[in-house]
Write a structure and sequence with these properties.
Layout (H helix, E strand, L loop, with lengths): L26 E11 L4 E10 L4 E10 L2 E10 L7 E2 L2 E7 L3 E6 L6 E9 L4 E2 L3 E5 L2 E21 L2 E5 L5 E10 L25 E9 L2 E9 L16 E7 L6 E12 L6 E10 L4 E8 L32 E8 L5 E2 L22 E3 L2 E4 L3 E9 L5 E12 L10
Antiparallel strand pairs: 1-2, 1-13, 2-3, 3-4, 4-20, 5-6, 6-7, 7-8, 8-11, 9-11, 10-11, 11-12, 11-13, 14-15, 14-25, 15-16, 16-17, 17-18, 18-19, 19-24, 21-23, 22-23, 24-25
């Protein structure tokens, strides 16, 4: 089947764009966009992913107002309409890799917006992610991440937010390829030989896009239980990668080393603040302080994870309509840890290979207590020349299992 993209002379395979060289349900392609204001404690995010092998295109939009979190989910079949649009939601590429318009029209959930997402420095192409288990590729993915600012408006339940680039910051990524298994579109683990652990195991992930005054950038790092940055056989496997810019057209400075000091809410693995000490490839020393501006949120409600839709599926499963399936709900995450229970999914079907951790604190009669791992942060950046700049960042940070640097068992 031909698509509008086949008009352009950019094919990298012998088939049309609607065909992919994999039958794995884990193969997908899509976006994440975040827009946030640390002074107001507001985080708005939206995104979507195409799964060619289920012929589904699914996405989400949410607003998190200081821990009160409302998510709208939507999907449709893909091959009948190749526009980057699902019902009331659409994306317009005003200037590829720099300016993108995000629109959610009235839809019944109470959430709508019209936002111009604008990069303030070039996107960073992360190292290609590749992982395998028992000879089968489990991750084979490219991804780029980018910091930005935002302009426009959003409304939720009659409250209007005027979004201006002086106080509203932004982050995004785009990834494609084999990502991670998402039950129920994944084999039961009990039907396969046990997974084999190979190489260093990831205990901590740090991912962030930041904007601070004249400077902006991205970096991520992954460490073992001993706190060693190492290449891992994992869905996120890069030891350290990222860069910083002073304005769009400046020279990129690539980070070559990083160490950190983190503080956590008592009795939890939930950040209160962190300081990163980085060195770039020109020998410059950077210090970036991160302070939590609002309760962190978790991605399990967006549609990626098993049981994140009310029927027990994901945004890659069919929900009764080829044209538009849509639903919404609200969570109170203002006090953490909290109890989160996926819809109609239990046992093995809860397992995923995302490995992002859900901040599990303990188990009780009311289920697992969890906390969010996606943070809205205020940022104070100390540049190598001694200047100090302030701004904001989105940080994804989670710790799985033992992590010796901060005494987690």
């Amino acid at each position: 089947m031909l698509t509008p993209y086949d008009e352009f002379p950019v094919h990298q395979a012998s088939r049309p764009f609607s065909f992919i060289p994999s039958t794995d349900y884990s193969w997908d392609d899509g976006y994440y966009f975040g827009v946030f204001n640390p002074d107001e404690g507001i985080f708005i995010a939206t995104g979507a992913r195409v799964n060619p092998n289920t012929d589904m295109f699914g996405g989400y939009a949410f607003i998190n107002d200081n821990g009160i979190h409302s998510t709208t989910r939507f999907n449709r079949t893909w091959r009948g309409n190749f526009d980057v649009a699902i019902g009331p939601w659409r994306v317009e590429f005003v200037e590829p890799l720099k300016k993108i318009r995000l629109v959610l029209e009235d839809n019944g959930s109470g959430l709508s917006f019209d936002i111009l997402w604008e990069g303030v420095s070039p996107a960073f192409l992360e190292d290609h992610h590749s992982a395998e288990n028992r000879g089968r590729l489990t991750t084979d993915q490219s991804r780029y991440s980018q910091p930005g600012v935002a302009t426009g408006w959003a409304e939720y339940q009659g409250r209007r937010f005027e979004i201006t680039p002086d106080t509203w910051f932004a982050a995004r990524d785009h990834s494609w390829g084999l990502y991670a298994e998402r039950p129920p579109l994944a084999p039961l683990a009990s039907l396969l030989p046990p997974r084999r652990k190979s190489g260093p195991q990831r205990a901590m992930r740090w991912w962030n896009c930041f904007v601070a005054g004249d400077y902006s950038g991205f970096f991520h790092l992954h460490e073992t239980p001993d706190g060693v940055q190492a290449k891992m056989n994992d869905v996120f496997g890069t030891p350290l990668g990222g860069h910083v810019f002073k304005g769009w057209d400046s020279e990129a400075l690539h980070f070559t080393s990083a160490r950190h000091e983190m503080n956590f809410a008592e009795g939890t693995r939930m950040l209160t603040d962190a300081t990163m000490y980085l060195e770039d490839d020109q020998g410059g020393a950077w210090k970036i302080r991160y302070d939590v501006a609002a309760p962190p949120w978790m991605g399990q409600t967006m549609g990626y994870h098993p049981g994140s839709w009310k029927d027990g599926g994901t945004f890659h499963t069919y929900h009764g309509s080829e044209e538009l399936a849509i639903e919404w709900e609200t969570f109170d995450w203002s006090t953490q840890p909290f109890t989160y229970t996926p819809y109609k999914v239990s046992g093995e079907q809860l397992a995923t290979n995302f490995g992002e951790g859900t901040g599990v604190e303990d188990k009780g009669n009311d289920g697992n207590k969890t906390h969010g791992v996606e943070y809205l942060m205020r940022v104070t950046l100390h540049a190598p020349d001694g200047s100090v700049h302030t701004g904001a960042a989105q940080v994804e940070m989670f710790i799985n299992g033992r992590y010796d640097p901060y005494g987690f068992a």
